[in-house]
Write a structure and sequence with these properties.
57% of the residues lie in helices and 0% in strands. The chain has 210 residues and is mainly α. It folds into two domains: 77 residues, no CATH class; 101 residues, no CATH class.
Amino acid sequence: MNKLKQGLPRCVAGVLVAVALAAPWPAAHGDFETATVAIEQGDFETAFSELEPMAAAGDPRAQDAIATLYLRGLGVERDVRAGMSWYCMLAHHSQGGRGIMQAVWYLAEWFRTGGGMPGKHYNDGNRANEDPIRAYFWFSVMAGQKALYETVHEDSVRLGKIGRTAVGSVLYEEEKADIGEALSHWQPSRPVPSPDECLELPKGVTPVNQ
């Protein structure tokens, strides 16, 4: 798992600037440069107000950045679920690549641990909130990204296979088959109505013991 974390900027400003420089996607309904300057100046509220409409309009740079602000409670009250919902929206960009797969990894681990995240927040999870079905789905997305995304991040393919195997050990075969069926109909380019609804994926998979 460390390979995804290697080289990550240590500060939020570094994260946002790195996203701005690395991503070729055009901005929408906002000013990403204004947001990054505001972050560098410590004005997180201005950054959030610039990023929010861009994220809602589908700009993946803004979605990545606003997820970070939510997860760290900068410019907005800390809200891990909201941050994860924006990572989920980010996963719905068919370009793929390291940044998008990192978002998918965070999603998978959040569901697997019941609220924890890679890094110092791994232990924030609650066993009662664990959701192995959704964790298995997102680990499967990582493992099967070659058929789903334009750019493949090989390290995360291997990480996805490991996570899928681990989580699969607690699922019934019928559940894994249903998730596989749901994944066969899922495409990252397919629009999702809202961040909250994104976290409900995959739909139509019911735990066997319910």
